[in-house]
Design goal:
Number of helices: 12
CATH topology: TIM Barrel
CATH class: Alpha Beta
Shape: globular
Number of strands: 8
Number of domains: 1
Structural class: alpha/beta
Strand order of the largest sheet: 1-2-3-4-5-6-7-8
Length: about 325
Amino acid sequence: MKTTRREFIDHSARAGLAAGVLGTMPAVAAAKETELLPIVDTHQHLWDLSKFKPPWLAGAPKVLARSYVTADFLKATKGLNVVKAVYMEIDVDPSQQTREARHVIALSKSKDHPTVAAVISGRPGSEKFKAYITQFKGSPYIKGVRQVLQVDETKRGLCLQEQYIKSVRLLGKLGMSFDLCMRPTELSDGLKLAQKCPDTRFIVDHCGNADPMAFMSAKRRGDTKPWHQVDPWRRDIAALAKQENVICKISGVVARAPKDDWKSDDLAPIINHCLDSFGPDRVVFGGDWPVCLLVASYRQWVAALKEVISERKRSEQRKLLHDNAVKIYGLLNLADR
């Protein structure tokens, strides 16, 4: 059965927007703003509907069916010490991919935006991919490519086709990464791709798209069926972590939590398994804003994550929230644009 991106978003938003979620979450100790660890958000979505109209937004939940621009991002992250952001592609129509890339390069060059680099959209399965991506060879602002694979059954196994593998290997030669955004049940395909492309860096988005519902009791879940089983996801994440060219992005998981009835403990099994599997040097933070608004505000997601990692060494927290992203995405030289 084919699942469209729109249906995926609808599924994630079944409960709608969260209201007063922090009231159900364990309290996070207040910290002075000067003591806050800096954050690099490696998964920032922006869409200006006067410029781009991603096909999947048609009929999307009301909270997403509007423009989200830098001013909105700055408001959402105010006081959280988000010092830089890496733009994540928004699955525009292929005819708009080059235009999207040029747009985010312009944003990244401007000191008026926290966005300093981008992961752009691409179709590695196309023979035209080489001509498309080599336009950006040597650009300090284009760090990688993503194609969302988890929302369309017709894309099952696509990433293991010969042309796809050839294109992803090219990314490695260009010094670019590839984001793995696929169903939890297909992470083994991502593993095979990573093994076939050892010179390309892979980034597992959203903790492998793990579903918090899968970790809840049957009573707590009610009639909601989890997207996957726990043990296969655990094994696949551990297997991916054994590949030195793979890192994990701690992002996205809150968008699947139940409305008004979630807490940081619901996300902890997912986050902790990823952190323990990949280790402190191969994990990065992603806000997944504004998609996170399906369930939580940016501030609520950050608060929940900080609650989960509060017992870990402060140096490891800093690596997750900031240092690893600066190193992995090569952001140091982009500080003084």
